[in-house]
Design brief:
151 residues; alpha+beta; seven-stranded mixed β-sheet; 4 helices; 30% strand; globular
Length: 151
């Protein structure tokens, strides 16, 4: 049985492996252990028999805006609804925090559209969204698409 829960410090190595395996395939950006430890409270994970099958984080940007980051599902478990369930958990968390808009910068356009997100021009996003982009290895040539969902 798959359980969805908040991540713990003991999950960091498994998250690091999962995320960076996906990054090596060009599906997402890599994350360092340091970033994972600093942001562990943002992560919701899917676990089955102590194996991390998927993860995603909700990063608060401003009073009414949050970003879904580091969404990953193990290759062996794709297509089983795990990613959609993680998105649902993160959107519920945003609702509970009274955040009205959630966005994602992603290479997985079809997935986010299926989850009810609408593509927008990156230039339409508030400047606060880009404050961490300067640390990205792809800066300033970002090739991710921007998606937004009102909740």
């Amino acid at each position: 049985m798959i359980i969805f829960r908040k991540a713990k410090m003991s999950d960091v190595e498994k998250l690091h492996t999962l995320i960076n395996e996906q990054a090596q395939q060009g599906l997402m950006l890599a994350r360092s252990r340091n970033v994972l430890y600093e942001n562990i409270r943002e992560f919701t994970i899917a676990v089955e028999a102590a194996e991390v099958l998927g993860c995603g984080s909700l990063h608060i940007v401003w009073d009414n805006l949050a970003e879904i980051r580091a969404l990953a599902v193990k290759d062996t478990h794709r297509g089983q609804g795990i990613g959609k369930k993680i998105i649902a958990e993160l959107l519920q968390e945003a609702r509970e925090l009274e955040i009205s808009k959630v966005f994602a910068l992603t290479y997985q356009a079809d997935f986010f559209q299926k989850c009810g997100f609408a593509e927008v021009h990156k230039e339409e996003m508030p400047h606060k969204v880009w404050k961490e982009c300067i640390n990205c290895p792809k800066f300033p040539n970002c090739d991710e698409a921007a998606f937004v969902r009102e909740i």
